[in-house]
């Protein structure tokens, strides 16, 4: 009888532990089998379905909200020695991450690399401070900025490694990451250019929109860097909350 009770207790304990391990993953994440020939198909579908959940944040896992993404400051100092177009954006609010559409997601376990590609539109609202030149036109101004980025293509690549957690389990950690981007079209609206000169302001905004590629060459990299920092922080927080055994089934 004692042996029977012990066996029953063990089975209940085993079921409870298995249930807890399964429950440690959020309901929007599906574990995939690394030995499954369609492993990357499973990973893609899971990542695609979970993107909007990630954008909304997950308080239980300390994952911050990505949409809107708030950034204190974005600096774009163009040209050598500060020559060219220089813009400082403050109190930045970037919206659109929630609606990005994931079109590729591939995990290479042997190379310890993950590649994700997404497309969509982003909008930046901020306070701007601008000086310098665009083409041959001098610019100066401070006020509200609205930047509309259309048909964006993002490729986020990160290399990972395995680390041992305090619980004895293995976890993934990001060791290197890059964010590549291509903007299909950009439009700008900067208020209060030239201390509120309406004619100069409207003319300059038209020039900025006509020369949007040149402007993006200046302001694109720091905006992308802010996005990359947010992506990395969000993904790492999630990876810290789920062990390799939970994410990758045999």
Can you characterise this structure?
The protein is built from 5 helices and 9 strands, in the order H-E-H-E-E-E-E-E-E-E-H-H-H-E. A hairpin with a 7-residue loop joins strand 2 and strand 3. With 250 residues, the chain is an alpha+beta fold. The protein has a single domain, classed as TULIP domain (Bactericidal permeability-increasing protein, domain 1, Super Roll), CATH 3.15.10. Strands 2, 3, 4, 5, 6, 7 and 8 form a 7-stranded antiparallel sheet that branches.
How would you summarize the topology of this molecule?
Layout: H1 2-23, E1 32-33, H2 39-56, E2 69-77, E3 85-95, E4 101-108, E5 113-134, E6 137-164, E7 170-182, E8 185-190, H3 198-210, H4 212-241, H5 244-247, E9 248-249
Parallel strand pairs: 1-9
Antiparallel strand pairs: 2-3, 3-5, 4-5, 5-6, 6-7, 6-8
Structure described in brief:
The protein has helices at 2-23, 39-56, 198-210, 212-241, 244-247, and strands at residues 32-33, 69-77, 85-95, 101-108, 113-134, 137-164, 170-182, 185-190, 248-249.
Which structural traits does this protein have?
250 residues, 7-stranded antiparallel sheet, alpha+beta, single chain, disordered N terminus, 9 strands, 40% strand, 35% helix, Bactericidal permeability-increasing protein, domain 1
Number of strands: 9
Principal-axis shape equals: elongated
Instruction: Report the sheet-strand fraction.
Output: 35-45%
If helices are DSSP runs of H or I spanning 4 or more residues, what is the number of helices? 5
CATH class, please?
Alpha Beta
Instruction: State the helical fraction.
Output: 25-40%
Total count of domains: 1
Which H/E pattern describes the elements?
Answer: HEHEEEEEEEHHHE
The computed structural class is alpha+beta
CATH architecture assignment:
Super Roll
CATH superfamily: TULIP domain
CATH fold naming? Bactericidal permeability-increasing protein, domain 1
Largest sheet: 7 strands, antiparallel
Residue ranges: pLDDT <50 for 5 or more in a row? 1-23
The overall pLDDT, averaged over residues, is 86
**Rounded radius of gyration (Å):** 24 Å
**CA-CA gap between termini:** 36 Å
